[in-house]
Design goal:
Two copies of one chain form a homodimer. With 330 residues, chain A is an alpha/beta fold. The first copy, chain A, has a seven-stranded parallel β-sheet, sandwiched between helices. In chain A, helix 9 links the parallel strand 6 and strand 7. The longest helix of chain A has 30 residues.
Chain lengths: 330, 330
């Protein structure tokens, strides 16, 4: 009975995972990443044991040193006796790609530490699918007892934000020269994060940049003050770091702790998590509907005919979409 | 018979639209933007008359001067006797917001010209929904006989690229200081466009930037040469402009024309359009499925119960999503 075997396998894997077994964790994340039913079964089984980890999301353009920063934070958290899980879904990250020599030395010291689990997930084309898998992987890290989870994503757009939106604290990492990101913040195209880090801060332009960001933040605060709720307001800190030399890391650890204390105290931690879980349920449902539709259509003769009509300008795209939806019983 | 009235109304609007009537065009785009059934009827009716316009997509971070550049291009194309349609879906664009005085002067000269139709579309939260409406609006401009269509989007991420992916030619606009975008190109996070413009090029760092981009492009070319098809290769030109003074615009017009001739000659124009139309049909179908699901769930007691179970860690998000999909007959 393969069914019984699988169930037994999942349960035993779940037990090992809940005990913090690293190999079980690695296997579990692979199951989720490969979209295997056992992976989803496993998440279902261990889900009651999640919700205890502190989840930090790091985003920012490539090249600003997010991985090095997470490496330095990992070291600091380990020194404080916390277990750490790192999940990188940045295709340009040294965690994901072959690291440069310097990075490799800094990062491998963690690979040998049992208290650190580092995992990168590849960008598999559809960002929806990846984000879905990444969030399940974060739940697995949480269930395995990782106390601090660092999620690394790339980007200055909105799509990538979807992934780290599920973090309790969102950290935007920039460096001197990140003019595009500052423009995006200024224009309201990018949302204001909880903490801003300027890495590689030993640069003559850093202080100009800090002033510019403070200007953006004070405008955003004004907006909030006029329409926002009467809560004690969180003032987004700007932390200057030189992650490669460990500078500014202690201050960053402190600010991250303050943010967590702030959202826990005023109840937004629960509120955020409730909203994020709602969005996650909807995102998973939507991604599955879309995937199912695409699979249905892959070799579908009627779809090919419809599409040919669209290409020949005899049928418009929206009508073709309606025809598809009607057929699949929508 | 309201049905007959609506049809008649649509037909008369369609007739005026096909004759190039600007008020009909404005009304038609509003119908599509508001997601009104008449809007979709109208697109269906005029769709056989589309596919003649040359569609150019402009993307890049806020503040690089995309609107000014499009203004200057519009002037040049009008001087060459072409009619122009501009569609801005950049929430930070002067087309969309109140423009600064200088911009307003430059842009209003076009507002008075009957051969130019400028329209901005607001970002309505869900980028999916907006992108869907924007593409329909582009079809309407095309049907109304606009010969050149310029679509403006913001972003250095992937989400925004989806919109301009439907353009025949994709132009990335940067300026000195666009370090994040160059890093994103370098890391392969952002796709290589067809044409790169460096605006505000009278800056001491412009030439360094051009060299950096050339480096990225030559690496991308190597990748392509090793695996790509044996087609005459398009060499992405880098055009330096000072759009506010009209400098570099003639060269840009020339490069845009060359790109169009290139894709027309080698057949990729038809191939691109076929692929883009396929993606559009799927995107519209997916967006509708998601919207339908969200509407169904807005006041749904069962969904609220499921969600509460997820929040209390008794039911995992993926199982909640499955329960929803099963219920809605998926």
């Amino acid at each position: 009975m393969p069914q019984a075997n699988t169930n037994e396998g999942t349960s035993s894997l779940a037990r090992r995972l809940l005990n913090g077994d690293r190999r079980a964790l690695a296997r579990a994340i692979s199951l989720v990443e490969d979209d295997r039913p056992e992976g989803w079964d496993l998440v279902r089984e261990v889900y009651p044991h999640t919700g205890r980890a502190a989840v930090f999301g790091f985003t920012g353009p490539p090249g600003v040193g997010k991985s090095t920063l997470i490496g330095a934070l990992t070291k600091a958290r380990r020194a404080a006796g916390r277990t750490v899980g790192v999940l990188s879904i940045d295709p340009s990250s040294p965690f994901t790609q072959g690291a440069l020599l310097g990075d490799r030395i800094r990062l491998t010291e963690h690979f040998l530490d049992q208290g650190v689990f580092i995992r990168s997930m590849a960008n598999r084309g559809a960002l929806g699918g990846l984000s879905e898998a990444a969030l399940q992987a974060a739940l697995l890290l949480d269930a395995a007892g990782r106390q601090d989870i660092f999620i690394e994503t790339v980007g200055v757009g909105q799509a990538e934000i979807d992934i780290i939106d599920h973090a309790d604290t969102i950290v935007l990492v920039l460096m001197p020269g990140s003019g595009d990101s500052i423009q995006a913040l200024k224009a309201g195209v990018m949302e204001i994060p909880d903490v801003i880090v300027i890495n590689k801060a030993q640069h003559p332009l850093t202080d100009t940049m800090v002033r510019e960001i403070r200007g953006v933040l004070s405008l955003a605060n004004l907006d909030e003050a006029s329409s926002g709720p009467a809560r004690p307001r969180w003032r987004v800190p700007i932390v200057k770091t030189e992650a490669a030399r460990g500078e500014g890391i202690d201050e960053l650890v402190e600010r991250l702790g303050e943010h967590r204390a702030h959202i826990a105290a005023e109840g937004t931690l629960q509120e955020r998590r409730g909203r994020n879980l709602r969005n996650e349920v909807l995102a998973i449902a939507s991604a599955r509907m879309r995937r199912r539709l695409e699979e249905e259509l892959r070799e579908d003769a009627q779809f090919k005919r419809l599409l040919q009509e669209v290409i020949e300008r005899r049928l418009d795209p929206a009508s073709a979409a309606s025809a598809l939806l009607e057929r699949s019983g929508g």
